[in-house]
């Protein structure tokens, strides 16, 4: 067999390949040659072959068959072999391969080798891919090497120690004594790696941090002063050719030291005081003409902001950032904006001074800078500057890239809500956002806007007029059209009556209004949700308009046979309103009352979600009772309030779209018509996907928490219900309860429905039961899963209601479950 | 923390790659392609720090070669920028034909 080609040849050959396929072919050929060479156990060329294999691996081709060869190379005595072997080990082997443990012995021997270079190789490899077992075994050796006087080895040992600590945090104390002398070295390599080691220790363990901060009167090994001294030497010393980078002495070490000082000084007055001087010195003496100097200044600023520095120093820091902002270099501006964003919470006033520069950055060409400037601008908006800032931001919204528009729109809404100087301004701003970036506005903005509009009672006429004008020209932006159709439906009468105080009223006839709503309905651009809005709006107008009721009736009946199930259901129900329930129509379609702001944290009363997917008649309470957070499914049942079904509910343009039930108006429930025929399976079919989305994301229940005892929650009249518990690993406030209902009587229990309610600090979600029949004689059970979210870890209590048919009669019972084991909620 | 260090040429061929965190081998090529796409699409006067997924890329162009370093938020971007240049200078001194 001819000698295998050298690595350089291989690289040259591969480079000549013109297509991906050619390259693959060459590599496969070479791989085959290498494999056969391995099989021949050829010692002389093994090193070369493995080197080639590593190159191919880097290009993305599989190279696992080389792993054992790496081990053989490591075991060899030749340095060149060892070198490639260790490199291969670092690249190809990691904890997941079983063979890596075989290396442990080799590494152990090599750590005690006579040649420092071999020791260095072993340290590098251990520090790169050592698994926890290996680290445990070899930590002692590493620690020994950390104390040696050979600086080449010392720096490698320090980095290896960092890796060991990351893998096996318990071994941290072992390295503590060795760190005492590390900073006394002159060699920058050792200094650098020691600082990294100390940083890692301080970040991982608060005890270590406290230890290093401690002021020790007698010994001169206090950490902070030592670091300060080293930093001072670096700055003050003259030109040192070894460590010079563009005129600054070892900037990498300076940055590291500054970072360590930051960690030490955080929340600690004494340490912070000790560093004040040096920080001021660095900040003023560092040259800013080159990037290097700016890098150091950046780190200094971050440190100043993070520790308990005096106010003079903070002002200095912010001024440095201001100077950065004016710099031409994009990198520096980016970095300045990032840091300002971090500091704007704490030093708001100081950052305000640079507001105009920041707003200018909005017009920059660079995407990263624009994003930062946008975030920062939102953080800077306050009551005084809101008008000016809004103008800039709206202009930005107009001209920015699509990926920003959604965030910008949401930000504008938030800021407008908090600081709007007047209602009219607020509505104008919202209109402006809707017209410029209408299609990027988030779904949950629509209900918020609608609520805002309802609340500004005196502006209704103005609002509806402006909205009407907006969609006259263009009805493709869905959120805009949704808001507009809702408003027209509500306030259509104001529109046609032509009374508007704020603006010149426009003359609109009822037919024109219906024209526009119908075109929304028909248009291909309208989403299903939007069509729903439009249809409901048309319906509402039947009570507001006087001459066009017949037209409305016609439109509504056409959609009674629409393919879209949602529209069909609405149309049929509205039709029924016209026919059988005409007497109820005016009451149902009355003007919406002012809605209370619903917060998404915590319901105001105990509510519960029913997991049944049957097309149950939905009941709701009238709007002002703050209702369930948006993530839960739409059905609400108030167990404990025990309210009766109330048919007089103002119609809300409820939508049950695939978009999460996050809409405020959904919560106001659906139209409840006991007599209406439901023509097609109601859109509740969409429910199961909601229910599973109930809590933030389907939690992973990796293992059943060892033995949370199960309880019998209910046992009466032959019906027994057991609860078994599981806690989620990913989300400790979630408890999953599986109920099992069994029946010990001689007759089956049918139509079994289980409902539950929990106190208001909890959230509950019921999934669908396995069936609704419990067979007799304990021959089978119904299982149902309940998920309870208990963020405040309060004692779990539950009230349950059971309804079922048994022996021909309907049974119902209420019970309270109090015997939850502590492990299920703690 | 530095997540990876790449040298990729303008055509998208990887010249050097070193990952400091485990990434599946098939995902690596995808990652490299995406990263280089991000960097190529930027113009001269845009800044060298790009936000990509949940970490940042610091890149520097030398003739037809891009050096890209992926870092997380704890690193000083500008120091890494200097590091790249330092690396290139070291290579230059050592191999004298960069």
TrEMBL record, chain A:
**What's a GO biological-process term for it?**
intracellular protein transport
Per the record, a Pfam family?
A: Adaptin_N
The superkingdom listed in its UniProt entry is Eukaryota
Keyword Acyltransferase recorded: no
Which keywords are on file for this protein? Answer: Coated pit, Cytoplasm, Cytoplasmic vesicle, Golgi apparatus, Membrane, Protein transport, Transport
* Chief place of localization: cytoplasm
**Ranges where the GAE domain occurs:** 706-821
Q: Which GO terms describe its cellular component?
A: AP-1 adaptor complex; clathrin-coated pit; perinuclear region of cytoplasm
Question: Where is the protein found, in the record's own terms?
Answer: Cytoplasm, Perinuclear region; Cytoplasmic vesicle, Clathrin-coated vesicle membrane; Golgi apparatus; Membrane, Coated pit
Per the record, membrane topology reads: Peripheral membrane protein
Q: Spell out the InterPro entries in the cross-references.
A: Adaptor_Complx_Large_Subunit (IPR050840), AP1_complex_gsu (IPR017107), ARM-like (IPR011989), ARM-type_fold (IPR016024), Clathrin/coatomer_adapt-like_N (IPR002553), Clathrin_a/b/g-adaptin_app_Ig (IPR008152), Clathrin_app_Ig-like_sf (IPR013041), GAE_dom (IPR008153)
SMART domains according to UniProt: Alpha_adaptinC2
Q: Which family does it belong to?
A: Belongs to the adaptor complexes large subunit family.
Q: Which PANTHER family match?
A: ADAPTIN, ALPHA/GAMMA/EPSILON
- Function statement: Subunit of clathrin-associated adaptor protein complex 1 that plays a role in protein sorting in the late-Golgi/trans-Golgi network (TGN) and/or endosomes. The AP complexes mediate both the recruitment of clathrin to membranes and the recognition of sorting signals within the cytosolic tails of transmembrane cargo molecules.
Q: State what protein this is by name.
A: AP-1 complex subunit gamma-1
Q: Which organism is it from?
A: Sylvia borin (Garden warbler)
Which gene holds the coding sequence for this protein?
Ap1g1
UniProtKB/TrEMBL annotation, chain B:
* Entry's family note: Belongs to the adaptor complexes small subunit family.
Q: Which UniProt keywords apply?
A: Membrane, Protein transport, Transport
What name is this protein filed under? Answer: AP complex subunit sigma
State its location(s). Endomembrane system
Q: Out of the domains of life, which is the source?
A: Eukaryota
Q: Name one GO cellular component term.
A: endomembrane system
Gene name, per UniProt, is Ap4s1
Q: Which Pfam families match?
A: Clat_adaptor_s
Listed InterPro entries: AP_complex_ssu, AP_mu_sigma_su, Longin-like_dom_sf
Q: Which residues form the AP complex mu/sigma subunit domain?
A: 1-98
The opening ranks of the lineage are: Eukaryota, Metazoa, Chordata, Craniata, Vertebrata
